[in-house]
Each structure stands twice: as structure tokens, then as C-alpha cells.
Amino acid sequence: MKTLSYTLYIFVLLLLNACASHTSEIKRLDNSGTDAAALTKRVQRLVEQAQVHGLALAVFNNNRLVYQNTFGYGRFDTKTPLTDSTNLYGASLSKAVFGVLVMQLVEEGVIDLDTPLQSYLPKKIWEYEPRTRWHDNFADLASDSLYHKITARMCLSHTSGFPNWRWFEPDQKLKVLDTPGTRYRYSGEGMTYLQVVLERMLGKGLEALAQEKIFQPLGMHNTSYTWQPHFEDDFAYGHAATGAIFGKDKDNEARGASTLETTLEDYSKFMEAVLQQKLLSPASYRELFATHIRIHSLRQFGPLSLKDSTLNDAIALGYGLGWGVLQSPYGVGAFKEGGGSGFHHYSILYPDAGIGVLIMTNSDNGTGIFKELLALTIADTYTPTEWNNYVPYQEKAPIADSLYGYQCSPCNQACDSLTFTAPGKCPHCQMKLEPKISLMLGIN
Fold first, then answer.
1. Summary count for the chain: helices (H), strands (E)
2. Is the pLDDT of residue 333 over 70?
3. What is the per-residue pLDDT for 300?
4. Closest CA to 39 of 20, 62, 22, 18
5. CA of 227: how far to CAs of 215, 248, 339, in Å?
6. Beta carbons of 26 and 66 less than 8 angstroms apart
7. How many domains does the chain have?
8. Considering 34, 65, 120, 355, which has the largest number of Cβ atoms within 10 A of its Cβ?
């Protein structure tokens, strides 16, 4: 009888704990509230109205996860459900993790934020023989007179002066475009330069470092900077606005700026750890979320990124170390977005309030509901949605019927079916198909 009573007691405790982890009451920044059922219903309606093919959503209160749900599909044409354990391409959410990893190395005395990175190496960075297909090839810098000034702080705050990626340059060569430390210019190349210097110093790759210091300690067993065989069991495809499927990259070499593969469940663990100030000291988190550069540009990307305005002065928009930062009545907001190949994500934490939200989508229609989702989940009206070009779905032009389906560039054959004998391959020449709308917009 005692054994039965004890077993029942343990069961009740576990049940209460589960309820506490996913409470029905959700508190917003403005002290208003909603319940899980009502939130789910409204989000489902949004997903349907905006034709978002798949959405994964997590909300945090009191520094812990209180709501987690998925909507739609991992693959729309086969109606394969999206779940909290479905692998999603994390894109630039990679950078937030990388920022924490670098700060761990700063705490260990491995690197200093303000020491020029070149000084850590026994020879010039461009003298090293590349080990990867392209990202550690710095031969272009042999004639550059500015790169030697770049520090870890500059790389993490996007003030290295490097372009986002070298292939965006007219000559596709890597070069420093601004005097390091003087202007915000979003740069995956900057973070990759920092990564490569660390790998050369430590004799250990990014993936091994991240697994050792972040993923394994937090139980993020379905997260990696490289594709893993067990991801094959359940992964999501990115979708163009029309529903056409992007090919899935599975051969990426580990880059702290861009190649994260993760799940809603795993990345929620990372955000919860940051809110609870695990992994780093309080002082390091203050450094992570401090404003290291103010941002005055009209947009984050494109031609308007070079035009200054007062658009976001009210929130003192800036950049920390791997995270964007803004100021609000509820304290600092630390955010990170990500996008590519039909995936679009946004996350923001308000550490002083213990509140945050994680939005992950595998649809080019996803950003059309970001503004409404932020207000609905945590009453966040401070995120710079215009700067991020998150145009509400109601304001987007309809898609022409002629842009639905796929186009094969090599043989110029169109195929409007979403299912093939070999998924993603042209039935005529077996080359990779691209969604017609992405070819029209010049996305790939």
C-alpha cells in the first residue's frame, strides 16, 4: 500500500511539473494575458490566412518555457506534419549560439574581445592552406591593408567591415569595405573569420566546440552545425511563397554564422538557458547584450542598408555580440533572426522581464505574420519589423499563377507538379529544380 501511495505521489508531482512547464496562462510584456488554447486558435487562423506552410512557436515567461506548439507541415505537398522534434535549418540563428560560445572562450581566457585576431596566429591568415571548400580561404586578403585591425568584438557586432558574403561582391572576392569598428554592416564573413582563427588557435573544429560547451550540456541532441545522419528521420523542407519546395542542403561545412540545424524543442532549450543565465556569468551576459554599435540604417539589407535615418532611434537600435539589441520600457530586448532557402525565423528575449518568444517557419510566407505574432504572443511592439522588412501578409501583392511550380534552368523545362519520382530533380534532365518564383526574384 505504501509503495502504491508513493508511486501515486511521484506521478502527481510529474504531472504538476508538466503542467507548470506548459501552463495555460501566458503573460505578456504589458501585463495582459492569454491562455494556451486561445493562442493556439488565433495562431492557427493566422497560419491559414497567410498560407504559412509550417510554423514552430515557443513562448517564455518567468525565464522558462510556458508554451510550445507547431502548425502546418514539414513538407507541404506530402502533408508531412511539422513537430517540435522536426529538424529545421536554423540559418542565422547560428550566430546567437556562436556569440555565447565565443563569450565562453573569453571567460576561459582563450581570447580577448579587443585584441586583433591576426595577432593570435603565427603567420598571416592568407598564408594558411584552406581546409574547407571555400570559407577558410583568405587568399584575397593578401593585399588588404585593413583586415589586421579586426577584433572578435567587431566580428560579433558586425563592424568588421567585411561584406555579408564574398559572393555578393561584383568580383566575388573577400575584402574589407569599411574601416573596422566604424559602421554596422551585417557580415557572415566576419563571424567566419573569427571562427577560423579560433579553430587554428585551438586545433579543434567549431562543431566539436559547440557540442562540448553548449549542445550536450543543454541536452540539444538534435542540434548541430553540420548535417547528421539521424536528421534524415524527420526534417523540414523550405517552401517558396507558392508552396514549391527548395532543395535541402545536407553538405554544409560547419559555420558559426549560418549552418545550424536544430529543432523547436532544442532551440527552446538554448533560449531558456540564456534567460536563466546558464552557460555564462551574469557579467558576460551584460557584455553580450550591451550596445556595441548603434544602428541608423533604414533597412538591415539591400540598398537602404546604406541610407541612414532616425526610424529606430526611439528604441536605440544597436548590436551586441551575436545578437541585435533594442531598448524598451521593459529593459533590453535581445533578438536574432535568420532566413534562407525558404526558412525564416525570429527570436527575442527580454531578460529583465523574463519573457521571450521563438518563431520558426519553413515558408517564405512566414515573415508576413511575424509582426502580428509578436504582438499576440508577448505584446512586443518594439521589434524593428520595418527595418527587418517583415511586410504583413495583408500588404503583400498576390502571386501570379504563372509563378507556381518549378523551373529547370539547364533545360528550361517547367514542371508545375509538386511531386516527382526523384523529389527536387527535373524529370527531363535530372538537374536540381528551383521554385519559379525564386528564379524570377533572383533569390538563388
1. 10, 16
2. yes
3. 96
4. 22
5. 14, 10, 17
6. yes
7. 2
8. 355
| Lookup: cell for 372 | 502580428
The SS3 call for residue 344 is strand
For residue 428, give every residue at least 6 positions away whose Cβ sits within 8 Å of its Cβ, in sequence order, or none.
408, 411, 413
24-33, 106-115, 168-177, 431-440: the lowest-pLDDT one: 431-440
Sign, CA torsion 189/194/200/202:
negative
Dig out the grid coordinates for 27 from the structure: 503573460
* Assigned domain for 142 exists: no
For residues 273 and 280, give the distance between their C-alpha atoms in angstroms, rounded to a whole number.
9
> What sections of 86-151 are H helices per DSSP?
93-107
Mean pLDDT of 338-361: 97
> How far apart are the C-alpha atoms of 412 and 433, rounded to whole Å?
10
Helix axes 188-202, 93-107, angle to 10 degrees: 40
Instruction: Give the structural domain span for 55.
Output: 2-98+206-395
User: Which pLDDT score, from 0 to 100, does residue 330 have?
Assistant: 98
Say if 225 falls within a structural domain.
Answer: yes
C-alpha span between 196 and 203 (Å, rounded): 10
Enter the pTM of the model.
Answer: 0.89
